[in-house]
Each structure stands twice: as C-alpha cells, then as structure tokens.
Amino acid sequence: MFTINALPYDKNALSGFLSENTLSFHHDKHLQTYVDNTNNLAKGTPFEGEDLTTIIKKATGGLFNNAAQVFNHEFYFKCLSADVKAPNGRVKELLLKNFETLENFESEFSKAAVSNFGSGWTWLVQTGDTLKIVNTSNAQNPLTEDLNPILCVDVWEHAYYLDYQNRRADYIKAFLSHINWDFVESNLK
Ligand code: MN
Are residues 120 and 45 in the same domain? Predict the structure, then answer.
C-alpha cells in the first residue's frame, strides 16, 4: 500500500511562487488520487507489494500512468524550495560543464518546459558527467529509459493554472528561482 508523503514545507511557504490553494489541490487532491488509483490497480496483481520503481519499469496502461504520477509528483514537490537558492558544489560544476553558464541552462530548461505540448514533465537527467534536458508527455518518466532524473517540473495545467492561468512561462521562471538545489545534488550518482 502506498501512502501520500507530507509536503517537505508548509503549504503557504511558497507564496509568491505557488499559492496554498494550488498546493492543496495539487498535493491533497491530484497526488492523493494517483496514490489511491495505484493501490487499487495493483491490488490482486503480481504488482501488489512491489516498489514504485519496479511498477514504473514493468507495468503498462493505467497502473503505469498512476504509479509514474506518484513518483513524478513526489519528486517534483521535493524539487521545490521556499528559499531562493543557487546551485552549488558538483551540480553547479556539471551545469557549467554541460550548459556553459547558469543562464544558458535556465534558458534551455525554460524553452523545453514552455514548448512541452499538452500535459507532461520537463526533466534534467544525468548520465555520468552529462546532463540533459528531457521532455516527457503525460505520466512518462526517465526511469523507463534508464536515465537518472535529478530535477523536474510539472507542466500539467493543474500545477499552475490557479496562480498563472495560461502563463506557463511565468510559472517556469518562478520555478527556476525556487529549486531545492540540495535535493538536486542529492540525486547525482
Ligand atoms: Mn501535477
């Protein structure tokens, strides 16, 4: 049985970036539904009792979609920070190595996220010293391609519509200054 993890910050901690209202709907309603659906769909199948990564790598259809959305959301919420932070340490080194400047990284990440058509996710993935920006659609997730995700942003409209309406670019701009770089660094292999 999967259960929902509490957010790693108060629901009003990101105000100015995401409202308490957005985080309440996104975490307590959308994510809870994906958790409930995953439990219901896995029940009585060989996937019951398996961990999330195994389900994501092996399941298809509704079970894959819901399990991947559980992983994607828990990862996304951990990527967010109440404080405005800058990348540091190894993650900063790798960003500079792969994108030359932090501004270039932000601009490329933003371009990818804004142009990700429909519902999906924009990821930063790592293979060795290589970082790449990858777009996925719907619930798709880099784990199925054996890529290591280190950062993601949710570009489904439910992630930003209450605060930004159709202005996805403004949401992405605010996201880029509220990244929990310590979490990103902790995902490096
Ligand atoms: Mn979402």
Answer: no
Positions in the chain whose pLDDT score sits under 70? none
Strands 120-127 and 130-137: antiparallel
Ligand 1 centroid–CA 75 distance in Å is 11
Phi, psi for residue 154 in degrees, rounded to 5: -85, 120
- In the prediction, which pLDDT does 173 show? 97
Q: How many residues does the chain have?
A: 189
Res 83: pLDDT: 86
Alpha-carbon distance 67 to 60, whole Å? 10
> Under a CB-based contact definition with an 8 Å cutoff, are residues 151 and 123 in contact?
yes
Q: Cα–chain-centroid distance for residue 107?
A: 18
Say if residue 132 is in the same domain as residue 173: yes
Residue 153 alpha carbon to ligand 1 centre in Å: 9
State which residues form the domain around 182: 89-186
CA 70 to centroid of ligand 1, rounded, Å: 9
Annotate the chain with three-state secondary structure: CCCCCCCCCCCCCCCCCCCHHHHHHHHHHHHHHHHHHHHHHHCCCCCCCCCHHHHHHHCCHHHHHHHHHHHHHHHHHHHECCCCCCCCHHHHHHHHHHHCCHHHHHHHHHHHHHHCCCCEEEEEEEECCEEEEEEEECCCCHHHHCCEEEEEEECCHHHCHHHHCCCHHHHHHHHHCCECHHHHHHCCC
